[in-house]
């Protein structure tokens, strides 16, 4: 295998490899002073998707590996397009798991999502109410940091030594402005919290502790969050719309085809153990052959069918076919 690959898609953790990543190109170097904090460990949302039987063969093809690693080296976001079920979201979890980058920060995008939601929220009303209460009780009001919570993007930009992984999921669902707004923050690798910036010259207010998206209290200095290691950002899209050229220019674009053959076998083994691909060749070949009609049939359906037939009808081929057929259907709610 190529030496330059940091992420190799082998499905086994190798947390030291990230140290072999060379320094960023000068135009992508960031100056945030690193926090001493450890990286929060990987959580169930990653292991659920990846399966628990690691040591499967590579679940990415060579071209995808090259592009994923290009994004890591260049400190650029990876824009992953492809049909539902092609493995876009799981890719972020796979990189975090293998490179020991800890819990994936997830930002699911909907039409109402604004940049601000990803950066931070400030509970001004809560603070006002608490201040009035404190006055009545004749005590000091709580620190402003208690009313600020960083979002997934804001947390990903905290100055950590190891890059965090940020999944901006289904960016194509956003309103028209979000991709451009996002672009500025991703270019600069930093953002301001005006509420803190204004107060930063008051005594004791230079450094304020706020809540991160994953529930830790983290220091913010001078009202700005400035990254150290640029996060590994995965933006996914089901291709429902085109993105503005400036965004495309600053991303690495990877298109994932629906998994077939080796990749599909690797996924099946990741979830059901070594050899599970061979034990379910009938279902796998049915799954891959039936979509010659260009209909969408996400991998989740194959995984569901294998699970169900494993527990119900191991021995009766006809029933097995029947049950699998119930689940493996094109993504279309019209009656068939
Ligand atoms: N590398 C992988 N290893 C194991 N399972 C995977 C892998 N990639 C995808 N899958 C499985 O395939 C299914 C679809 O993947 P997902 O990432 O949700 O697709 P998308 O985001 O493109 O819709 C999930 O059930 C996931 O568990
Ligand atoms: Mg997805």
TrEMBL record:
The domain of life is Bacteria
Could you state a single Gene Ontology molecular function term?
A: ATP binding
Q: What is this protein called?
A: ATPase AAA
Stretches for region Disordered = 12-56
UniProt cross-references to SMART domains, sorted A to Z: AAA
Q: Which organism is it from?
A: Streptomyces inusitatus
InterPro entries noted in UniProt: AAA+_ATPase, ATPase_dyneun-rel_AAA, P-loop_NTPase
The lineage is: Bacteria, Bacillati, Actinomycetota, Actinomycetes, Kitasatosporales
For the AAA+ ATPase domain, which residue ranges apply? 74-260
């Amino acid at each position: 295998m190529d030496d330059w690959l940091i992420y190799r898609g082998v499905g086994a953790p190798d947390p030291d490899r990230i140290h072999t990543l060379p320094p960023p190109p000068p135009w992508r170097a960031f100056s945030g002073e690193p926090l001493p904090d450890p990286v929060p460990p990987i959580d169930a949302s990653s292991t659920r998707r990846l399966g628990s039987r690691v040591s499967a063969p590579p679940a990415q093809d060579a071209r995808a590996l090259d592009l994923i690693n290009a994004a890591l080296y260049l400190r650029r976001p990876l824009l992953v397009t492809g049909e539902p079920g092609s493995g876009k979201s799981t890719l972020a979890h796979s990189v975090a798991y293998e490179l020991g980058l800890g819990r994936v920060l997830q930002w699911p995008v909907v039409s109402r999502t604004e940049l601000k939601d990803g950066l931070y929220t400030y509970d001004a009303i809560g603070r006002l109410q608490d201040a009035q209460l404190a006055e009545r009780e004749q005590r000091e009001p709580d620190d402003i940091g208690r009313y600020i919570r960083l979002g997934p993007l804001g947390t990903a930009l905290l100055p950590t030594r190891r890059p965090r992984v940020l999944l901006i999921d289904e960016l194509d669902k956003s309103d028209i402005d979000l991709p451009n707004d996002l672009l500025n923050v991703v270019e600069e690798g930093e953002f301001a919290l005006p509420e803190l910036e204004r107060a930063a010259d008051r005594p004791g207010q230079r450094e304020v502790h706020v809540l991160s998206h994953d529930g830790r209290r983290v220091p913010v200095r001078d009202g700005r969050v400035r990254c150290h290691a640029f996060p590994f950002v995965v933006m996914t899209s089901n291709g429902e719309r085109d993105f503005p050229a400036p965004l495309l220019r600053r991303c690495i674009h990877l298109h994932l085809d629906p998994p077939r053959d080796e990749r599909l076998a690797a996924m099946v083994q990741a979830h059901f153990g070594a050899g599970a691909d061979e034990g379910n060749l009938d279902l796998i070949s049915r799954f891959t052959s039936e979509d010659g009609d260009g209909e969408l049939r996400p991998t989740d359906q194959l995984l569901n069918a294998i699970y169900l037939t494993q527990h119900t009808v191991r021995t009766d081929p006809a029933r097995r076919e029947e049950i699998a057929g119930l689940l493996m259907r094109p993504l279309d709610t019209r009656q068939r």
